[in-house]
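sorry for the late reply, my laptop died twice this morning and i had to redo everyting from scratch. anyway the thing you sent over, i finally got around to it. pasting the sequence first so we're on the same page, its 381 residues, then the predicted structure underneath. double check i copied it right bc i was rushing
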Amino acid sequence: MRERIKSAFAKRFGQPPKVMTRAPGRLEILGNHTDYNEGTVLSVAVDRAMHVAAGLVPGQLCTLVDIGTGSERTFDVNDLTNPQKGDWANYVKGLIVEMRQRSITVPAFRAILLGTVPIAAGMSSSAALEMAMTLALSQLAGVELPWLEAARIGQACENNYVGARTGLLDQFSSLKGKADSLVYSDFRSLQVENVPIPAGTAFVVVNSMVKHNLTNEYNERRQACEEAVQVLQRVYPGAKTLRDVSPAQLAAAEKELTPIVYRRACHVVGEISRVAQGVEALASGDIVQFGQLMFASHDSSRENFANSSRELDMLVKIASELPSAYGARLSGGGFGGITVHLVQAEQAAVYAKEVADRYRSQSGQTAETMICTAADGAGLL
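ok and here's the structure:
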């Protein structure tokens, strides 16, 4: 990829790039919608990434060229006040706005982009773009950003410019990934650790090919979590977020909440508990138990958080019927996109084909499958 984007930049702009970066996508393994509740998450940075080659240009016009899709954007670096709804360039423009608010002067630039993370599938293609571009822009601006500040710039871009009230999970995962390891993130302390993945396992990603538009549904789920906390604080004054409520405490306060808000809170509180159990299972090498936690996580997404879909449920049910699968669940925001399957590595290719065949037979749709490995986090190329 390095040589490809370097060559493409030189061919298009007549000179070599000043900086090249990559940032991986991620899979959420356990801990669905817990990051903005100050919870914990187990995720993995994968060997699918956004690659960027960038250089400075005189004047004020910036040029973005995605050589994977053929899409191009040109904009004035000093005229970023009106985001174009649904435009992928908003993720870059928003970064510039946020960096400037932090007194980082981003000059005009041009960039070649090449991504291998599926778009709108739940693998955080947006965060991969944000982190690859944040690294590139900071280099062009002559600034070394601490990793946490880079993550916050990406989150602020989505919150303030794109209009999605996302947490920090995607940026943390993209920045702090490590080969052969999961990323354990605590979104209260903002501490990140790497947890080794047991040998002999692999992640099979199955794209349902049902696209999702996350923004509205995501915001509604987040609002429900905030409403739950407001009510629970009357019962448990020390509760600042759902992180501070145990499953038993939540059950005891069920009558204080509306049925929908209660179910949303059940999902988040249960997920935080499952992450803790998952860390213990991995530490003891109990991959079977870890897989069962993944299945339980998906059940909660379907029943409590209502962020699954018919197609995602179908894929997880297929996984439960195949002996080489330890566990499976939706990954990411949900409402479509992908499922992630923890499987025996030696059976991964056969498993992927079997799942795709059964899915086609049952749904009439053709799923895309990929076998993913854990990768290092974002950096310079």
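DSSP finds eleven helices and twelve strands in the chain.
thats about all i looked at so far, will dig more tmrw
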